[in-house]
Amino acid sequence: MVVVPLRLMLLAIPFTAQARDETKPEVPTITVSGTGTQAVAPDTAFVTFGMETAGKSLAETQRQNNQGMQKVTERLRELQIEKERIQTSSFTVSPQYKPSPRRPTETPPAPPEIIGYMVSSTITVELRNLEKIGIVIEASLAAGANHFRGLNWALRDEQQARQSALKSAVAKAREKATVLSEALKVKLVRLISASEGDRGVRPLAHAPRSMLAMEAGGGEPPIFAGELKVEASVTLVYEIGPE
């Protein structure tokens, strides 16, 4: 038989009572969310293009590809593009195989035969002077680049636009909370919590606001800068009570 000291038993009694006293009823709440947007014109562009070179010898194919891309980068430097703004974004080597016979033979198939190589390299150029975009594209293709991979817009500093979008999101969330409280015939007692959710930056779907037009007599393509939409979201939790 195990004997429990009386002192330990007495200490356990008030601890249990205290734990029960700390139990509180759940506070009624409502949760609302809002999304805000801010449209801004981009101030930076990223142009990506490259060169694909095919040949029988890997060393010779790679040498030709390197020489071609060297001409492209030299042309970019002539256009006053800083070397810090030019970055190799990919470099791949792909073997080219001899086509398999259409009709299978009775003998076991031979391993694929390499008949050549494809070397592909791409570079991405950061442009802060948007008026140079068309010129850079035209000059790069004329210098030997045979693949244009795309054009992306960006903002160097998104902070101000994000803050404006966040203020708009908070205002919309508060408006939702007010409408809900009136419809439910309750009142907003206090704000319990607020959490932010970043929605990112993306191009707007409507017509562009600005255009980098082709110069008269020039060959560079017209470039539409348009606008970027900076989005932010917020979630608010309110304690509610009777009116």
Overview of the structural elements:
This protein is elongated. By secondary structure, the chain is of the alpha+beta class. Helices cover 30% and strands 39% of the residues. It has helices at 6-21, 58-78, 133-143, 159-184; strands at 29-40, 44-55, 86-97, 114-127, 147-154, 186-203, 211-212, 223-224, 228-242. The chain has 2 domains: 27-41 and 158-242, Protein of unknown function (DUF541), domain 1 (Translation Initiation Factor IF3); 45-97 and 111-152, Alpha-Beta Plaits. α2 runs antiparallel to α3. It contains 4 helices and 9 strands, in the order αββαββαβαββββ.
List the helices and strands and how they pair.
Elements: H1 6-21, E1 29-40, E2 44-55, H2 58-78, E3 86-97, E4 114-127, H3 133-143, E5 147-154, H4 159-184, E6 186-203, E7 211-212, E8 223-224, E9 228-242
Helix pairs in contact: 2-3
* End-to-end Cα distance: 61 Å
Instruction: Examine the coordinates and then state which fold CATH places here, giving the name of the CATH topology of the largest domain.
Output: Translation Initiation Factor IF3
Classified by CATH, the class of the largest domain is Alpha Beta
User: What percent of residues are in strands?
Assistant: 35-45%
User: What are the low-pLDDT stretches, counting only 5+ consecutive residues below 50?
Assistant: 6-13, 15-21, 205-217
Q: What kind of sheet is the major sheet? A: 4 strands, antiparallel
**β-strand number:** 9
Rounded Rg? 33 Å
What structural class do helix, strand and pairing data support?
alpha+beta
- Helical run tally: 4
Helix content: 25-40%
